[in-house]
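For the sake of transparency, this paper describes our internal protein records without simplification. Because each token names a local backbone shape, the row as a whole describes the fold. One such record is reproduced below, unchanged from the form in which we store it.
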Amino acid sequence: MDTYDALLINVTDQTYALPLLQIQEIRGWSPVSPLPNTDPSCLGVINLRGQVLPVFDARRILGKPAPEARPQDVIVVAVLNDKPLGLLVDSVSDIVSIDSGTISRADEGEAWSSGLVEGIATVGEKLVPLLALQKLAGNRLSDQSMAALEDMSAAA
């Protein structure tokens, strides 16, 4: 039986799943340094053990109301293309192994399909969208911003 290991996150009133293999760590909220000329969902950057980490607001990306970050919010540090990035979420609820047979994949033309969701899994009694991390945050920073982040990391 194949399984999909996932981290369950909560964003406003919805539970979502992220691929566990791409999660580096979970940390509490810490203030960010804003960056000019970035995607509106990019809150800014934080210093993560000498590395500059961009932090994105999952609420904005998912089209949810985006209040100011609160001390109880969580930053999920994921690795995308060998680079870490942070996703601000309301909370983390669980780590689960989902039977791959219970996942409906987002094929082209599905009425519920969106670029951010790669499938829907049944977890207990809930239907949980599986977020495509690459599409969720992969294209949020311009090449110019990424180059600036790499320069900042090298200088740190």
